[in-house]
Amino acid sequence: MAVTQEDVARKAGVSRQLVSLVVRGDPRVSAERRRAVKQAMAELNYRPNAAARALAERRSNIVGVVLPAFSNPYFGNIVEALREPCHDRGLTPLVAFSQESPKIEAEAIDHFIQTGVAAVIVVAPIQAPESLRRVAEDIPLVVAAREPMGGYIDTITSANRTGAKIATQHALDVGYERVIYVGRTHPVDGSVSSRRELGYLDALAQAGRIDEALTVLTKEAVGQTLEEVFDEVGSTNCCFVVVNDMLAIEIVAELGLRGIQPGLEVGVIGYDNTYLAGLHGFQITSMDPNYAATAEAILEAVTERIHQPDLDGRHRTITPHLVKRASSRRHTWGTHAARRRTSQG
To answer: Which domain holds residue 105?
Structure first.
């Protein structure tokens, strides 16, 4: 029976993908791991096939990009922002979607590795960090929208804690009586929601109002969430600091169904500053993560990782800024709310 790359991988104590890279002569593999694979190949008398040898002559300029979905405009903004820095470096991004499935995400990454891409960028990954750390031993891997993961993984994210603190401070400055943080439940370690919640708490603590903190984590049923919050705080004079624009839009829509005008009565502040936040029907105040700077940092990490694959992973944070819109303007709240209560009575 012919010796396979799986056999070589077991012998060398590495992954099959790494054996494939060594067979192709990929320069991204460290000298130490290359020696281990070569030794295992010699001991097992492994002979790569003609197709594998042909791949060794090719040097790819393709960068694989894996996204959870395209439904959230944040991911589209990231891809669009990557185009120019990729072009400047002679690279071409190729996009795959995981459909928010760890299995599909892993398959997409493996496919990119097997097709010989120069590097892989994963945005908001679904897989556990340990799985991605193993991948990073085989190919340059850069992760966006996650906190540090260790190993050889470079991570780039918005300064989430700082951004949420800025958003919360804005809500306090405008004068809302209560500020509530609304996030999504997320099973993946290193997701942004927990960091943004910390920023929210930082702002309340700095204002001496930490005893007013209220965090709501939701999967669905935003309408029910709003009712529970209004019942608990005993007022609609409040502002929601929301983990992202998509959830903020759901909240604005639910407020509209209740005849509540965002901003004048209930504040809503999102995160990501997607085009949806700026639409006339929403006008949501949002933290802009600085897509251009994020994309540039991602490609800097990719380039560095290609040339120096054995560097420890680095973490880069990009400073966001607040884009103010109507959803956090409450200058006439008292008059408007009183008028609404009178009409309802």
So the answer is: 62-157+291-318
